[in-house]
Amino acid sequence: MTDLLYGDIEEELRRAVRSVLDDLAPWSQVLAGVEGDDPYDAKLWRTISADLGCAGLAVPEELGGAGASFREAAVVLEELGRAVAPVPFLGSAVVATAALLEAGETELLAQLAAGRRTAALAVPFSTPPGASFAPTVRAEDVAPAGERPVAGEPGGNATLTGVVRSVADGLAADVLLVPADGVLYAVDGADVRRTAVTSLDMTRPLCDLVLASAPAWPVATGHAARRALEAALTTGAALLASEQLGLAERCLETTVAYVKTRYQFGRPIGSFQGLKHRLADLWVSISQARAVARYAAACAAEGDPDTAVAVAVAQAHCSTVAVRAAEECVQLHGGIGFTWEHPAHLYLKRAKSTSIAFGTPDRHRAALAGLVDLPL
Amino acid sequence: MSESTADADDLRRRVHEFLDTHDPGSTEPLEFLRARFDAGFAWVHFPSGLGGLDAPRALQSVVDDAFTAVGAPRNQAERNVIGLGMAAPTILRFGTDEQKSRLLRPLWTGEDIWCQLFSEPGAGSDLAALGTRAVRDGDHWIVTGQKVWTSIAHEARWAILVARTDPGVPKHRGMTYFVCDMTAPGVEVRPLRQITGEAEFNEVFLTDVRIPDTDRLGDVGQGWAVAQTTLMNERVAIGGGAAPRESGMIGMVTALWREHPELRTAGLHDTLLRLWVETEAARLTGMRLRQQLAAGQPGPEGSAVKLAYARLNQEASGLELELLGEDGLRYDDWTMRRPTGVDFTRRSPGYRYLRAKGNSIEGGTSEILRNIVAERVLGLPGEIRVDKDVAWKDLPK
């Protein structure tokens, strides 16, 4: 039976990450950061990725990783979600890492695992699992088979031209993994024109990419390329559920703490049943979110044949719960929850964005209909 | 070999020794069950001499499997859910030695079926407001009142009963817990017909029923504390077992959906998939809860599971009727019957829809469960209690 609990190592990891986040990313600082120009918090990322070794959790030890799995990475995402931390963990340590693992690439993978470089998958953040290669980028000047230079050498063996909108964790990525014409290419970040997008989620800014004959190296071709893209999207969607879980949990905790101390009509507002019952229902949904997020992470980590169903269920459920938790957080805080100075909006923006990321709940339900034989 | 494996092997060996001297094929069933109880194989976590071996509860399955494997006589636990699940742990915790040795063996063997006399027409969610009176008369109590929602009262030999012994103090303090002989003069059981047409439950009228003081469980005035033990075990019992995907109510709807493409519409499709996802989420939550219990980390998620299933059962059965369209207008049978259990699968969709309405009322209403989650899990302030310091007799009724 799939283990849905947290092991001792996972709890230890959680404590370590939370302690770093408490120190380096209190919400006041996260809020201040969104007014700046930095694409992410570099100091925080260095601590989490390299010092704590989180960037390589899912990478085998012989490739320079920690030799854990995506289960442990999911626990890190719970904590990052709690803090709406502005770091490229999901894009680099989960999505790009999953693509490279599936493709059998080792060199860039080792650099990502060590936290020395970051990579991002160049697809719109809303791309769901099962998506085919987008036609917005075309490969030109492709070297004939057999004459392919080694990845990373100057010159590349193709050039890419096209546009990719709304890429997550791509602004400062050292390498972009670009699907084009059935091949998954690696492109040096310096060779891509990147424009920051004014993003709904201020703590995970997106960017638009323009490639103009950008030199590119193949990471995977043919079936392997399709599998790598699918692994990236499936693993991303599976683990995003854990980020949503952490976010929802933090929203509930913050709201519960607030309604205990906010007095109106001579009583703490948390003593009114109208609020108590809403919060109790939210707690029920979050308990369920924990079970489905753990299940999705375990399936993704083990390559379980039920992964597709687990991911569809996790995204359909956790997206909805995260948005509801953030919306309740704003509403039950009343006026203060509508202000810029209160962190509730950071959570709402993150929650709503994640409900679109890797496909909306409706898309995941539609996918499920095919997976479990419930066609319209 | 781990210690628990050694214990399990040892236990298996002892069961086989028992079976050598008590042939499950030829021994009279009741005699066999009594001997099994006396040997400590009834509930191994109970004390020796009371059907147990002071062993960890987890080892019970080892014993049960060994007896099942040889086709040994069964105590038909499903017929005595309240006795085994609620009365027994309460008797064990609060009973005198005399009560334990007198009551527990026939309870476990199934000779004595038990029912629960708690709820009253005026005391549902607010159980502590109950008004059935017990007045002392020498070494007896004279009990008068009306109880309701009593499953299998018409088959029960014994009942667990909470009655008011002191109306002059606030409600929680004036109650006492008894076991009540259902064959005693003055006990009248009437079926209570419900919205499905049948009567799973009864009303029980108590008129000057004489209960010996030796059938009192716990101290006079301690009834609420004793009842908490019973109710805690009820929530454990309802918490739910392992279920495969698409089992229960959602499975009825998905089967119908697959068999009848002509009934499908886009709106119903969306509703079905939402319910499927939520049911799967609830199922995984139940699975996680059991893993927590097995790992010795019990959590409060049991309340979450019950709250979720009540709503999902109602929504899925409602969807089934809508999906059926014209056939959803028909009902199988309004005849008044007295079933011993609930089986959602053997009756019509209309029955399922109606019966599921009880899921958010029985065993704690969903509203009370939300209060419990809000107060005990989230630590939110309790409800304002206007009756806290008022003598029961002065409460508005």
Offer a quick outline of the entry.
Chain B: Keywords: FAD, Flavoprotein, Oxidoreductase. With 376 residues, chain A is an alpha+beta fold.
Explain what this protein looks like in three dimensions:
The complex is a heterodimer of chains A (376) and B (397). Chain A has 376 residues and is of the alpha+beta class. Helices cover 51% and strands 14% of the residues of chain A. Chain A folds into 3 domains: 8-118, Acyl-CoA dehydrogenase/oxidase, N-terminal domain (Butyryl-Coa Dehydrogenase, subunit A, domain 1); 121-221, Butyryl-CoA Dehydrogenase, subunit A, domain 2 (Beta Barrel); 227-371, Butyryl-CoA Dehydrogenase, subunit A, domain 3 (Up-down Bundle). In chain A, a hairpin with a 2-residue loop joins strand 8 (263-264) and strand 9. Chain A is globular, with a radius of gyration of 21 Å. Chain B has 397 residues and is α+β, with helices and mostly antiparallel strands. Chain B has 3 domains: 1-74, no CATH class; 77-221, Butyryl-CoA Dehydrogenase, subunit A, domain 2 (Beta Barrel), CATH 2.40.110.10; 239-364, Butyryl-CoA Dehydrogenase, subunit A, domain 3, CATH 1.20.140. Chain B has helices spanning 3-21, 29-38, 60-69, 81-94, 97-109, 223-238, 249-259, 266-294, 301-324, 349-356, 366-377; strands at residues 114-117, 133-137, 140-151, 158-164, 175-181, 187-192, 201-212, 216-217. In chain B, helix 8 runs antiparallel to helix 9, helix 9 (301-324) runs antiparallel to helix 10 (349-356) and helix 9 packs antiparallel against helix 11. The mean pLDDT of chain B is 92. Chain A binds chain B through residues 1, 3-5, 252, 256, 259-260, 267-268, 270-271, 273, 275-277, 279-281, 283-284, 287-292, 294-295, 312-313, 316-317, 362, 365-366, 368-369, 372-376, and chain B through 246, 254, 257-258, 264, 266, 269-270, 272-274, 276-278, 280-282, 284-285, 287-288, 291-292, 295, 297, 301, 303-304, 307-308, 367, 369-371, 373-375, 377-384. Chain B: Keywords: FAD, Flavoprotein, Oxidoreductase. Chain B: Residues 221-378 form the Acyl-CoA dehydrogenase/oxidase C-terminal domain. Chain B: This is Acyl-CoA dehydrogenase family protein. Chain B: It comes from Actinomadura alba.
